[in-house]
Amino acid sequence: MASKYAEAGVDTAAGDLAVELMKSAVSNTHGPEVLGGVGGFAGLFDVSFLKPFTRPLLATSTDGVGTKVAIAQAIDKHDSIGFDLVGMVVDDIVVVGAKPMFMTDYIACGKVYPTRIADIVAGIALACAETGTALVGGETAEHPGLLGPDDYDVAGAAVGAVEADELLGAHRVTDGDVVVALGSSGLHSNGYSLVRHVLAERGVGYTDFSEELGGNVGEVLLEPTRLYTTPLLELLADPELAGAVHSLSHVTGGGIAANLARVLPVGSWVEVDRATWTPAPVFQVLSEWGGMSLEDTEGTWNLGIGMFAVVAADAAAGVIARIEAGGIPAWSVGQISFGERDFGGFEQGAKGVNGGAVRLFGTYA
């Protein structure tokens, strides 16, 4: 006989099955530092490795993937959304030079479909494994009446650690530093409200095939977020490039200039040369469909840059070579300057940060 809770729309048995289906994927992210395995009320992580640190700092980040989930739901493809989530969360932690330790996730849904939840978590676990992050816990919450049966949203939080003397940021940036761009894999997980608006106005469906985009529209738009954590940590640990990286910026919500400005010191400025790269077709096609120029979207989409590294000028070539050896396109886009100038057209700081000034100039290649 069904319980009153089940009659109200909450299926605890389905939730238990979802946990069973995801157990193996989650356990694959666990090293000896994780205690207790899957299913505890709290995740446990042994931080004894921090004992030799002179002044260990914990870094934490939380995020979701925004309305990209609407596209996953529309084409019933859920195995990459979790991968996106890790990119949005863990790659914020490496920005300060921290090594991620562990992550937790939260999935809210209208109805628990065990295989769907397992697919989402499998994506999270895969990306956690690629970034050296233990997935130590999570929650799947069924919200009938609040969310539709096929609706869900995902969020996560992670914690990392860095030695205080190795902390990256605007305080390290100096006159003449070179700004290196790291290529994105596509839209990543920002600006999908604009994407969906453009498609709706043009009458394009997620299951339609687009020759211009080079495939099924929904699948192209679900291209997983590129992960930068492991290549950047390897770069920071390279003895030949010790101290070369001064600050990092994750290009997410807010666009290109605003995110770079956040990691530059007050009084500094840089002009980013658009001619140094060509935005991928997905950006060009969506801009054209929406009746916008690429320049119109610079505050919304990453246009091909997923991360910036501000590095010492004499090490820029070595940094670029090291990043490209890890399979990520990298190139110089500008050089940091200090001093008085007319800041018309520049963006100065963002998200509460009183940082440097950034302006994009020129025409895309």
TrEMBL record:
Recorded catalytic activity of this chain's protein: 2-formamido-N(1)-(5-O-phospho-beta-D-ribosyl)acetamidine + ATP = 5-amino-1-(5-phospho-beta-D-ribosyl)imidazole + ADP + phosphate + H(+)
Coiled-coil portions: none
Residue stretches making up the PurM-like C-terminal domain: 175-337
UniProt-listed CDD domains: PurM
Keyword Ribosomal protein: no
Molecular function, one GO term: phosphoribosylformylglycinamidine cyclo-ligase activity
Sorted UniProt keywords: ATP-binding, Cytoplasm, Ligase, Nucleotide-binding, Purine biosynthesis
GO biological process: 'de novo' IMP biosynthetic process; adenine biosynthetic process
InterPro entries the record matches: PurM-like_C_dom, PurM-like_C_sf, PurM-like_N, PurM-like_N_sf, PurM_cligase
Domain PurM-like N-terminal: start-end pairs: 57-162
Compartment list: Cytoplasm
SUPFAM superfamilies linked to this entry: PurM C-terminal domain-like, PurM N-terminal domain-like
Protein name as catalogued: Phosphoribosylformylglycinamidine cyclo-ligase
Taxonomic lineage from the root: Bacteria, Bacillati, Actinomycetota, Actinomycetes, Micrococcales
Gene responsible for this protein: purM
